[in-house]
Each structure stands twice: as structure tokens, then as C-alpha cells.
Write a structure and sequence with these properties.
mainly alpha, 9 helices
């Protein structure tokens, strides 16, 4: 009985800490200002955490929507990185508009964690973004994902080992 009470107390403590952490995140986001290149660099660890939230939460989730705004703010006018949505990705967002953010989350994770020559960065981050989108799509209805023929085509290409070739052919800046 005492063990059960201890577990319940511990669970309540963890929940309280989680709520406080979320409140802190909201407060920090309201005061977020990125002005210099150093500000953007300093915020990169937080952006990595944000991309993980995007990939772990269902489309339309309240936290997902909040984090999306943070990532878009960081992407906007970023002095170090240029973000581009390939046409074939735009086609994948008709049924699931949030997929563009899922794509960016995967691309950003690659950009911030993989040492790649600058001339190859755009292509490889695009592949990482597409793979993140496909992983998310596989979560299905539990993540609010609707069936999409364009994404199905990319899944087929991935299974056939042709995804990289397809991206290379259709990715232009």
C-alpha cells in the first residue's frame, strides 16, 4: 500500500514538473527575439528539441502548433541557412498541410547535426526531410495523417531504393 502511495506521489510530482516546464517554454517563446547571427546560433539546441517535438506529436496537437511557430520564426530571416520547399514536397501537403513542417523538421535536424560539405548540404538535408516525412506518414491515423497518393509514391520509391535518385532529379534550387 505504501509503495502504491509512493508511486502515485511520484507520478503527481512528475506531472507537475512537466506542466511547469511547459509554462516556462511558453514564457520563453513570448520573449524570444532573434536579431543577430549569434542569437540564431545560440538557439540551435532549442530548435533541435523543437524538431523532435514536431516528429513525436500528432498533427494539430496544441504543442505541435506552438512549436511550429517557433521553428518558423527561427527559419525566417535566418542569416546562416536558406530554407526551400521542393515542388514534389508541396504536392505532399494537399491532404496533410502539416507535412511541410515535418519535412523541415527532418531537414533542420540534418543541417544542425551532420557535418556535410556546404555544397552537398541542401541535397542531403532534403533527403533527411523526405525520410522524416515518410516516417511520420507511417504513424497513420493515430497522428492525424490522411492517406496521400503523392506520399505513397515516395514510399514506393524508398522501398525500391530509388528515392535518392528521384530527389536528385526533382530537387532544384
Amino acid at each position: 500500500m505504501k509503495l502504491l502511495q509512493l508511486k502515485l506521489t511520484l507520478l503527481c510530482l512528475c506531472f507537475t514538473c512537466l506542466l511547469q516546464a511547459q509554462d516556462t517554454l511558453l514564457i520563453n517563446l513570448k520573449n524570444l527575439e532573434l536579431e543577430t547571427e549569434q542569437d540564431y546560433l545560440d538557439f540551435e539546441p532549442e530548435i533541435l528539441k523543437c524538431t523532435s517535438v514536431i516528429q513525436a506529436k500528432p498533427l494539430g496537437d496544441e504543442e505541435w502548433e506552438l512549436i511550429k511557430k517557433v521553428i518558423l520564426y527561427w527559419m525566417d530571416d535566418n542569416p546562416k541557412y536558406y530554407f526551400y520547399t521542393p515542388e514534389f514536397i508541396k504536392k505532399c501537403t494537399k491532404e496533410n498541410p502539416g507535412f511541410r513542417m515535418v519535412y523541415f523538421a527532418g531537414a533542420i535536424q540534418y543541417i544542425l547535426t551532420e557535418p556535410t560539405a556546404e555544397e552537398d548540404m541542401a541535397f542531403h538535408s532534403c533527403i533527411a526531410g523526405v525520410e522524416a516525412l515518410l516516417d511520420y506518414y507511417r504513424q497513420g491515423k493515430s497522428f492525424g495523417v490522411k492517406r496521400d497518393d503523392e506520399v505513397q509514391k515516395l514510399l514506393h520509391l524508398q522501398v525500391m531504393g530509388e528515392l535518392g535518385k528521384y530527389i536528385k532529379k526533382h530537387y532544384t534550387l
